[in-house]
Amino acid sequence: MKKKKGPLILTGVLVILLIVYFGLSSWNKKQDKKEEKETVKVTDLDESTITAIKYQVAAGEMSFEKEGDTWYYSEDKDFPLKQSKPEAIVKAAAQITADRKLEDGDSLDAYGLDDPNYSIEITEEDGTVTTVSFGDSTGTDYYVTVGDTGTVYTVASSVLDDFKTELSDFAQLDEYPSIGSGNLKKEVITENGTTTTYDSENEDQEEEIAAVAGGLGAVSLTTVADYSVEDADLAGYGLDEASRITVEATYTKNEDEKTMKMYIGSEDGNGNRYVMLDGSKIVYQISDEVCKNVLNQE
Q: Model's pTM, two decimal places?
């Protein structure tokens, strides 16, 4: 009687597959441990303990300080700082990893670390200061050292990407409402004590309402002249109470009636005028043409 070979062959295949599976699983675990072991940390800080950070990377020195739960721009505490920005910088600085740590390296000047190109200074709440210095470039990497340890690492140049910032990147600008002919109810302009009103309920003002609505809809608060203007400096922009033009627009949003008050100041000499929203300290520049439309001027 012939023996059935099918079950035996299947059993053999299953055994082989199990051996391969467990072999690969063991290899992957070893690789994970190897990679974990090879991770070299340049900084290993608890970001929640960091209270100040200063860095000089691209566009000059940038410095931020934390009081309580709030971050401030060190040079101007009134600067409208977007909190998520310094938080992201701190997170990047707290955990910098290296590609490798140099063993028995040369003196720091051999790597350009005696006079660093870039630096990051991190201060913790207990007063501890950690300074990360970046020396010469090796192509895709930088030579790096921490404080006066003398230890040299190579770090990917991409580590600096988070620090290549300008002050404008950190600004929390004012939110300007969406206004157009479909939702503008009324615009009241006050200039030199004289008030002009354009009302959407007035059938004789259809053209005027369309014109001023078009102007209001074209306003874009993106170009900043001053992030935190002092009251004493308002006159320089023509935005002091005696000089400015006040525009108060009543509009609807989701069927609710809202009001936006904006001040228009003098020209900047380049085809723009200075503008600011009521309650804000940011002075913007918008084109004179847009301002003329807002004011229904020729």
A: 0.79
